[in-house]
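New to this. Explain these tokens.
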Amino acid sequence: MAIGETTVTMVGNVVSDLVRQTRDGHDVVSFWMRSKERRRDRKSGLWVDGRNLSVRVVCWRRLGESVFMSMNRGDPVIVTGRMSNGGPGDGGEPSAIPELEASIVAPDLNRCTAVLTRRPPPRPAEQPEFLDWRPAAAPRGANPLVRMGTRVTAASP
């Protein structure tokens, strides 16, 4: 962790498809996340929508692989990481898009359930490969039994 670094924890939903790409020779997965405030209106006594915050979440290497296998659009997530302005824009000036470089991504167990599938640690002599562990028979967005390492889906309230 660096001096002056902004570390945040954000609770929300995955609101885009997951994008897998290579940056600086490393595998990375990114997606958009939105945190939507819900508050109680004192006058009416009802819950109403409040402010929104949307950020692009970037997951590097092994974390990116696990996120790509486990998360889908609409899933409730909790993300902890370093917040920044997303690096240089098209003209070299800073970008206005907020970016959260994730160190931890997890399903929000207040709004879904999960079954953990532990992965073996990589062998030191091997270079970790970016694998797509998603079963071919289960299309993205399907609602099978929730399983970390395969898929995480939200339970309908």
User: Anything to note?
Assistant: Residues 143-157 have pLDDT under 50 and may be disordered. The chain has one helix and six strands.
